[in-house]
Amino acid sequence: MDTKSNVDEIQDVVIRFSGDSGDGMQLTGSLFSDTAVFSGNDIVTFPDYPAEIRAPQGTVGGVSGFQVHVGSSKVLTAGDFADVLVAMNPAALKANAKWVKSGGTIIFDKTSFTEKNLQKAGYIKDPIKEDKLEDFKIIEAPISEFTKNTLENSDLDNKSILRCKNMFALGIVCWLYNKKLDVAEEFLQNKFKKKPQIVDANKRVLEAGLNYAETIQAVERHIIAPAKIEKGTYRNINGNLATSWGFLAASEKSNLELFIGSYPITPATDILQDLALRKDLGVKSFQAEDELAAVCSTIGASFAGDLAITSTSGPGLALKTEGIGLAVMSELPIVIIDVQRGGPSTGLPTKTEQADLFQALYGRNGESPVVVIAASTPSNCFNFAFEASKIALEHMTPVILLTDGYLAHGTEPWKIPSMKDFPEIHPPIAKEGEEYIPYKRDEKTLVRKWAIPGTKGLEHTLGGLEKDETGSISYDPENHEVMCKLREEKVKRVENYIPELKIEGNKDADILLVGWGGTYGQLATATNEINKEGKKVALAHFNYINPLPKNTAEVLSKFKKIIVCELNMGQFVNYLRIKFPEFKYDQYNKIQGLPFTVVELKDNVYKILEDK
Amino acid sequence: MADEQNKLTFKDFKSKGEVKWCPGCGDHAILASVQKAMADMNYVHEKYVTISGIGCSSRFPFYVNTYGFHTIHGRAGAIASGAKVANPRLSVWQITGDGDSLAIGGNHFIHEIRRNMDITIIMFNNQIYGLTKGQYSPTSPKGKISVTSPFGTVERPFQAGALVIGARGTFFARSMDNKINLTAEVLEVAAKHDGASVVEVLQNCVIYNNGAHRYFSDKEFKEERQIILHDGEPMIFGKEKDKGLILEDGKLKVVKLGENGISIDDILVHNSGVEYSGIHLMLATMEPPFPIALGVIRNVDEPTYANELAQQIKDVQAESKIKCVDDLLLSGKTWEVK
Ligand code: SF4
Q1: Most A CBs within 10 Å: which of B71, B315, B321, as the mutation test of the A interface?
Q2: Which residues of A touch B107 (CB under 8 A)?
Q3: Residues A99-127 pLDDT 10s
Q4: What domain count does chain B have?
Q5: What gap in Å lies between CA B102 and CA B89, rounded to an integer?
Q6: Do both A15 and A111 map to the same domain?
Q7: How far apart are CA A489 and CA A495, in angstroms?
Q8: Given this model, what pLDDT does residue A2 score?
Q9: For atom 3 of ligand 1, which residue has the closest CA?
Q10: Which residues form the domain of A544?
Q11: End-of-domain residue from the set A389, A421, A453
Q12: Does residue A525 share a domain with residue A407?
């Protein structure tokens, strides 16, 4: 492979693969990502696909995309806009042209740009003119045609031949960024082990793509140098898988068996699927008949002594509300994972949003405090799943773990941790022979003990009715008030067991950006860039929402201007206004089902600073 | 489950708390039957778990001395399922009513049955909502006048047995609150059955639906209006033991012994263990002028959910190279950064 001529080195590139949802773009994207990672780059990826499994072919609604940001240093986001767009049909171009940097490169499958397909996508005749793409570098590659030519002599039928065309596109992109084909080849070899014919066809098309790019020499090639990354063993991981595995870690460290009771719901379903696979680690996965049964079976498993969790998304969390109230009342440890998506109602199932915060904090009848924490990168979903379990088990409380569609399906390389570096988890399990009073509390933490059915002599009854310390039903007015306050205070005291809030960026700044959960990558990048551009800013990004870190007020008090950025209409900022009314807050919100872009974050921060 | 030990008595299952059902309520008798059955089965005491939803009957866990969980309306089946899967060694008893399990909890009820969760489900059927003061329930007969149906209901009621069999139930039995011994006997068979065992107990709510089951329980006619089924015995009933059930044209028919040449040999013999559910369905859904069927109507063997799951886990564990989380994290595609 030629690595010398016409090759310049660049810091990073964002590539977006797009096509019909049947075109294999998710696979193409992840193969390129793996290729980049194996050559030493850092990456973040983000898939973007329609809610319909197979929307009508060739329509804009059926377009599936996969974006990858490849860098020679640490990358924190999947990138705002693409440097390169691969569009397998006119609909893909139509849907994605607006996501390409002006002057960027667009590679499209010329063969598929027929009159009929153009019209299906909403073009009249000339997409370049109609979408004003004249200033872009356009590569009109006859991808389908050359795929067919390459496999002219094969025994495969026409349909199977055309299925290889995504490899042609991958070949082109590999050439553009000077990447070898071995990762993709190895994947094909494994995937189609039993079908050597398919392996061969795909490999030939992949090479044909690379050769085509080399032959036409249409645009400059680039090299992205390997990133300086901490030593260690790495793997790629997405947020949902990291979440699932975090619970396995907690199961191991608490010596409790793991039970998951869930009902399929986008974008959380992978968690149930990933854990259903882990029978080898003893996971009891229970696909419930509905969301109510999901949370209730989880409560039952917790009552019987398992580490019990349930995964869902916004609409499912709404259905679980009453069950979570029972876990609050009976003070049983469960973890509820809400992979947030666009709402309300069915909303935008495959899109990301942070608008379930209030639901998590307040969406139950009565005074019903729960711990709420949020992961902030795909890989730290592992740590926060572990942390959610630890808090639930050690504090005998339901914990809601918030992630979102962006984290769930976004991937990044992850330095594989070792279990010996994680703390043991010590649930307060009552022992045979001790005197057991169900709601007698530890003085320091206010946590009650957990007497597990099957333990001799600890028979007792729990329930959803108000009770006194002994667990007997009590309608006594004063007792109710005492119990409500105790439950609230128990959750509040979790603050003594969580880390303090840290500040990133310029610590001497007057301006503080505030975020929480899945927006960390964009906010941290924006913070860095604004500092580089000469304005001093700091960033406080929250993972612990209820209770908040103990030093929150102290941190906020150091800044003249606080700008809270979130993907909703201002839920966290209003929460802060309730908790700390002594400070003034500005806010920037976006509710489009999409992550922030760094550019718009910066623009809006500057705008807020101008407005004063 | 045969962790036997020093003989338990029903006193071991008496709770310290005061029983607060209305005086004369059928629930008291059912409680006594359950305590008797638990003692007779003689599992170790700490293995018994009672889980209920909401309603008069659902107060049960507070009135029996076992591990107990009084949960939320309709959800006992789901919670009991979770508990059983988490620890299959427990003897899980679900206490529920006609509203709790057939209205608000209908979905969990049919699915725990379909999965053959090894849970003993006692459904107190009083054909009314007692705790909320007298609204009609999914088992109230059509036309029932209640506070929410002042002109009579226009709804058709559920037949619990048909629902259980429709959900591929492996066990269905029926008793009446005042038949303490029959209830205890049936409950013991139910609890020992591997799988979801539904026991419908016709229960009298003295306050809101007094006499709902009077037609069947009436002292003067009860022998003519009840048939107690025993495996291997012919299906005969009546004061004089002179009536019986036969199959004619694919339907059940009541006949009189000695009439039209009918002898005891013509009468159907009960077999609760036959897999084919057709005859069980006919028995479970008999309505006047037929007698009502009591006793164990259906009791067939099928693998249970928790056992199948435990077995699957064992099988996968024997095959898998992944033995701990570290193994898992390092499995699949990884790379070294040096
Ligand atoms: S209301 Fe009816 S069912 Fe409830 S306790 Fe009283 S008599 Fe029994």
Answers
A1: B71
A2: 289-290, 292-293
A3: 999 889 999 999 999 999 999 999 998 99
A4: 1
A5: 27
A6: yes
A7: 10
A8: 45
A9: B205
A10: 504-611
A11: A421
A12: no
